[in-house]
Amino acid sequence: MTTAGQIVGLLERRVGLSARAVGDRMIESALARRMKELGTTDADDYARRLAGDARELDCLVEAVVVAETWFYRYPESFKHLAQMAIARKPVPSPARPFRVLCAPCSTGEEPYSVAMTLFSTGLAPDAFRVDATDVSTRAVGVARAGRYGRNSFRGADPYPRDGFFTEAGDGFAIRDEVRKVVFFRTANLTDPHCLANEQPYDAIFCRNLLIYLTDAARRTVVATLDRLLAPGGVMYMGHAEPLGLIDPRFRPELPPQAFAFSRTASTIVRMAETIRRPFDGPAFLPPVTVPQIRPGPRTPAPSTKTADFPPPAPLDPVLSRARAAADAGNVAEAAAICAHVLRELGPSADALALRGIVNGMAGRPADAEADFTRALYLDPGHYDALVHMMILAQNRGDVAAAANYRRRAGRAARREEQS
Question: What sequence ranges are listed for the domain CheR-type methyltransferase (predicted)?
């Protein structure tokens, strides 16, 4: 095996990274930075050091895993989360807090966005808990410090910054009241025993991780997330991660720009029969008493009123029936409804994309790809069809096609956010 192959193998075993998905250029750049830092130009010598130095391997992982993030990225996800938390009032309480996991959490912008969103719905600080993990000790250190430059506030910023931040030099610092409700630690989701003693979470954010993993690591992570998600819980993924195609136990939620997934009805029934057991494991981190948040004098306190988020628009009623049938595991019924719509109403991108999803659930990838292709002929910017085509291309090893579909899906998502 070549030296490069040995190093890639170490990365795959450590964090499940797929060299093909991450890209040779990114790995080579990370290697060059680490070797320069250590003052060596001998790749063989560096590979030997990696094999016996767990700390250096972690440094290389951190150099490769450079996650780009900012506050309230994918704003529809946070609106969806707020609606979910509001719908469950007055259930969240100190005895049964609303639990959210962010993994990987990168440098903390996402979990702090979650906390600020929940504060803005009127939840008291002891009525919810945000846990956050990342494989990078450096990223976790930055997150715990809670100090951010202006680049962390790029894009749409629909939430008031002053109520949760104080100015700190050229940037901003998270106020202590917010920092105290977010609990950070290092953890590796590709470890099957990751967070093994945790109580279930009502919501899990797992952005832009699955697309960079090997197939085996992806299966492990999805199994871990499934174990950690409470019945009725929601998972928030990245824009290029159609969890419903990766694992048919999950279905997408509305609106599409929330990139939210919940279990199908049949899966929830099976779960309810198997997870009724007492929890006797340790807490994620020692509990702390958190004071009621009190904004500074320059800004009003976060509103305790119900957030005014518009309800998601319903799907076409007939296609809604098809989706409901698919969610219940009635693939044949769902396929029949899609066929009826296409026969009676003519071709439509939405109907073809939904039938493609149904064909994927039925184990007919060729038929699924044909449907997604036709959907894209009718609507070249159809988000669902693009992301499913990306996964199909990735599964057959067509890296160039997968990258092309990923770029197109990203553009489609941005257009939908701006519309």
Answer: 1-274
Q: Answer yes or no: are the C-beta atoms of 161 and 189 closer than 8 Å.
A: no
Does domain 3-65 match CATH 1.10.155?
yes
Q: Is 204 helix (H, G, I), strand (E, B) or coil?
A: strand
Q: Do strands 229-237 and 250-252 pair parallel, antiparallel, or not at all (unpaired)?
A: unpaired
Q: What is the CA radius of gyration of the chain?
A: 22
Check pLDDT > 80 for residue 263.
yes
Q: Checking phi first, is residue 41 left (phi over 0); if not, alpha (psi -120 to 50) or beta?
A: alpha
Q: How far is CA 120 from CA 44, 123, 295, 303, 309, in A?
A: 53, 7, 12, 6, 12
Instruction: Residue 397: count other Cβ atoms within 10 Å of its Cβ.
Output: 9
What is the model's pTM? Answer: 0.65
Tokens of 64: 């490769």
Please tell me the distance from the alpha carbon of residue 302 to that of residue 250, in angstroms, as a whole number. Answer: 34
Q: Can you give the residue ranges of every domain in the chain? A: 3-65, 75-263, 317-417
Would you call 104 helix, strand, or coil by DSSP?
A: coil
pLDDT tens-digit map of 301-337? 434 343 333 333 334 677 778 877 776 567 788 888 8
pLDDT of residue 100 exceeding 90: yes
Give me the phi and psi of 160, to 5 degrees please: -65, 130
CA gap 217, 201 in Å, rounded: 21
Report DSSP state, residue 180: T
Q: What are φ and ψ of residue 405, in 5° steps?
A: -65, -35
Q: Please give the class, per CATH, of domain 317-417.
A: mainly alpha
pLDDT band at 163 (very low <50, low <70, confident <90, very high): confident
Return the residue matching tokens 């799907």: 315
Instruction: Give the mean model confidence (pLDDT) for residues 387-397.
Output: 80
Task: Quote the CA–CA distance of 230 and 249 in Å, as a whole number.
Answer: 14
Its CATH architecture, for the domain 75-263, is: 3-Layer(aba) Sandwich (3.40)
Do the domains at 3-65 and 75-263 have one common CATH topology?
A: no
Cα–Cα nearest to 217, from 3, 7, 11, 26: 11
Residue 124 is encoded by which pair of tokens? 């008291």
* Contacts of residue 294, Cβ cutoff 8 Å, sequence gap at least 6: 177, 301
pLDDT of 221 above 80: yes
Nearest 5°: phi and psi at 206?
Answer: -135, 85
- List the structure tokens of 348: 């439509």
> In sequence order, what are the residues at sequence separation of 6 or more whose Cβ sits closer than 8 angstroms to the Cβ of residue 366?
none
Helix axes 349-361, 317-327, angle to 10 degrees: 10
